[in-house]
Amino acid sequence: MTSTDDVATSGCLFCQIVTGEIPADKVAENDDALAFRDLNPQAPTHVLIIPKVHSPTLPELAAEQPAAAVAVLLMAREVAESEGIVDGYRIAFNNGAGAQQTVFHAHAHVLGGREFTWPPG
Length: 121
Ligand code: AMP
Ligand code: ZN
Fold this sequence. Notes:
Blueprint: H1 6-9, H2 13-19, E1 26-29, E2 33-37, E3 45-51, H3 58-64, H4 66-83, E4 89-92, E5 108-112
Antiparallel strand pairs: 1-2, 2-3, 3-5, 4-5
Bound molecules: adenosine monophosphate (AMP) and zinc ion.
């Protein structure tokens, strides 16, 4: 469910980062999306991009509010440029517990600054 109401967002860690109740090391922000550094970085650059509205995954958000999902991708592109990683960076979306999603508010991991392998683990 995509919502900005209190019932959907109460207790959501990333909604609390959007409201400022929980601090974050922000690197970009606009009306639709917010970028901040991951607390447990997996690469020299590891930035999370989140929509300001609550939705559990980005595909779910894309179905319900396509413009908000595009805003996340555009901010990923902006951050890749500002972080100087456009020559090789990875955008990862973990969708569901089976894919190691731990925070159920849509987010893109933008990773760069090191070599990557394929397939991912
Ligand atoms: P995922 O496992 O895809 O749900 O990713 C959640 C990410 O959020 C993990 O990489 C965590 O390290 C990161 N994380 C959790 N809490 C915070 C926080 N307060 N500030 C920044 N990153 C966080
Ligand atoms: Zn949320």
